[in-house]
Every structure is written in structure tokens, then in C-alpha cells.
Amino acid sequence: GLSLCVSLRYLSSNMIVLVPQAEIDAAVQLLLKLKVDYKQMTGQDYKAGCPPSENLIVSNNGPAADDCDGEDLVDPWNVSASSTKGVDYDKLIVRFGSSKIDKELLERIEKVSGQRAHHFLRRGIFFSHRDMHQILDAYEKHKSFYLYTGRGPSSEAMHVGHLIPFIFTKWLQDVFDIPLVIQMTDDEKYLWKDLTLEECHRFTVENAKDIIACGFDVNKTFIFSDLDYMGASPQFYRNVVKVQKHVTFNQVKGIFGFTDSDCIGKISFPAIQAAPSFSSSFPQIFGGKKDVPCLIPCAIDQDPYFRMTRDVAPRIGLLKPALLHSTFFPALQGAQTKMSASDPNSSIFLTDTPKQIKNKVNKHAFSGGKDTVEEHRKYGGNTEVDVSFLYLTFFLEDDEKLEKIKEDYTSGALLTGELKKILIETLQPMIAQHQERRKQVTDEMVQQFMTPRPLNFKF
Ligand code: TRP
After folding, report:
1. Is the CATH number of domain 354-439 1.10.240.10?
2. CA of 356: how far to CAs of 204, 349, 350, 364, 430, in Å?
3. Does the Cβ of 188 fall within 6 Å of ligand 1?
4. Domain regions of the chain by residue span
5. What processes in GO biological process is this protein linked to (predicted)?
6. What's the whole-model pTM score?
7. What is the pLDDT of residues 346-371, one digit of tens each?
């Protein structure tokens, strides 16, 4: 029969749901197992509502990776995996207390949007979420939502990995026909890097051009620089202050690993990344409405900001944002770390020439193939660690082609050089087209995107 129970989802919000007894029993078993895993991983007893922060999300200041003992390190400033296969994303879901994007959710996204799911969803590149079902429930009842994502403009040079959240956000904007705000955290980069305010602001404008080149609809998109918009928008700043009042130093130390010697700008910055999660921060778009739900597509390393945001939201009378999390875009050298703009050989930049792309892939892309052709033909290659193959899962849209490549590489029929050639021929036109579109983006267009104004959408 049916009985009433409180959802047992790990670290989740309090939901009341009706479920059959068998499901409850299974969930209890799972919960018990998760508690054991939790204790093993953290050395702490699980306590509802207390994210496993202190010991797990290691400080960005210290020589972090070596004291985490086979654990993956993932926070907004560091990503490093203990295995060559990269970060164990299933474990991360447990550690962060988010939910897996499962088949059921994929099918719902397709049903509600009326579109086939984006290949980033089909292939598990966006793999985790918080409260996506609630967004879809509301949308089905004709209650709209808005998208929020962002970029820390730390240099002029953006690489292909930086495009992942924007390519996906553009798809979401198209299929749901909803407004989007994009935060350029030039203030954050000023606080964290050795850069001047002017440089950071200039990177905002330059990066905005690459973002605009992804094809966002100017009538539905607002891009803003924190340095400009914070001062110009009283409602935005009010939300920042509300968040600041409700988060203690202890909490941000736990969540972000700040220490006593971090500047106070860093310590209060999370409130600034939280504020765009609330529709009241954008009165020109939402006409003062406080209750337009927000969905944040982002890489999973940004989750600490939004765990904090979701924790504060109800205490300041605002809605918790929902999230869709992506995996990281691996460095050319292997999935153990993500691409970094500061190491030119680890990344394919959006400014690279066809020749540079070819050389980088051939020289630096970590191969899952065997050392000799004979061995490769005999034993086949490993697509799980092969960076060229991993990149194709991001950028080769054709499922059948990708499947065939996987089969052939695994069987040894396809050699590493041939696989690299496929990747090179996928990246070259993609980047050339990006460069072409970016060239079309004028300063006036950037101005237009960055002007606070009403956006074109209905609720
Ligand atoms: N902190 C992010 C970075 O350094 C930028 C950012 C701000 C962001 N708000 C966001 C990213 C929302 C994703 C979603 O890149």
C-alpha cells in the first residue's frame, strides 16, 4: 500500500512524497549505505543539513592535493583527480549531495521541452542537478523560469572548455524560450589574481564577445560586469547585503577553505555570486518580481557557491536556485585535471589557427592507444582515458559516428593517429566558425547586451 514518508534523498531539502513501502525500504537501505560511505570518506558522522565541507573542500591556499589521500579535489579553484580516468563523478554526487541526471529526468526534459535532449545531456556531460524536477513542474504549469550562468574573466584567452556551459545554456534558452543573465565576475578575478581592475574589466568585454559569438538572443540575454552593475543596481546590492548578513565567516571557511590571511574581499565575494540567483536582483527584467525561479547551468566546481546560496535563500525569503552541473573539460594531457588558460599546451584556445590545433592535438593529446601499431591492432585502445576520444564526446554531435569510432578504437581497427585526425577535423571548422562569428560582434553589440533593459519574454 501507500504510506506517507519524508524523502530520504541524501542531504536534500524536505519534501513530502507518496511512495510505496518497497521503495521506502530500498531508500532506507541506500541511505544507510550512503551514511557508511560518507563516514569512510569524511571521517565524520553524517548530519542532515551540514555539508561535508571543512575537511573535504580543501583550501585553495595550501598545497592542496597531497593531503587528500586518493580523493579527487574539486573546488572553484582546483580540480585534480586521483585516477587517470578523471574525477569520479558518481562519488562527487554523493559528496556534494546533489542528484544524478537519470533516464527519467532526461525523458522529462525531452517531454517538457518538446526537443531531443542535447548531446551534453545524453552523454552525461551534464550529469548532476539540484531541483530540476521542480523547474519542470512549474514550467508545465506555465510558470516560466530564467537562466543564470557566468564567467570569471581572468584573461583574454578563452579555450574550448570555457564554451561548454555557454553552448548548453544557449540550447536551454532556445528550447525553453526564457531569459538569461550572465555574470562576468571581474571583481572576483581582481581579488584572486595579480591583475588590475582595468585589466579585469577589459577581459570582461573581450570575453563577452566570445560569449555573444555562441549565438545568444540579444532580446533575451543580459550580460553584466560586476564592477559596473553592482554600483548601478540598488536591488542587486541589497540582495548581496542580505546574503552577507546571513553567512558567517565560519561557514565560508568551511565551504571555500578561506583562512584568516585571505583578504576580506574574497571572504565576502560568494554573496556577489549568489545574488544573480534571485530575480529581484534584476528589476529591469523581472519588474520587481521576487519569485521567478532560477536555473543555473555550471561546471560542478561552482557548486560550493550555490550550496551556500541555497542554504541562505529561505532565510531571506527568496527561492533556492536549481542547478545543472557539468563535468570538466579535460586538459590535453589527460582527464586528471581540467584545461587551464594559464598553460597554453593544456588547451585549445578559441584563437588557435588550424595549424596550432593540429600540432597541439598531435603532440599533446593524451592517448589511450598502445605503444606500437602491432600491439594496438591486437589489444585495441582505451577510450576511457583517451583525450581525443573524450573531446569528440563533447563536440561530435553524431551519435552513430561516435559509437563507430568507439568500437573501432577499442577493437584496434582505428589507430591513435587516425583518431586524432578525426578530432582535428572536428575542431578546426568549429573554431574557425567561432572566430568568424566573433569578428561580427561589434563594440555596439557588446554595449547592447550589457545595458540593463527589459527583456523580451512572457510569464
Ligand atoms: N566564478 C565563476 C568563474 O570563475 C564565474 C561565475 C559567476 C559563474 N557566476 C556564475 C559560473 C554562475 C557559473 C554560474 O568562472
Report:
1. yes
2. 25, 9, 11, 11, 14
3. yes
4. 1-42, 75-332, 354-439
5. tryptophanyl-tRNA aminoacylation
6. 0.85
7. 899 999 999 999 999 999 999 999 99
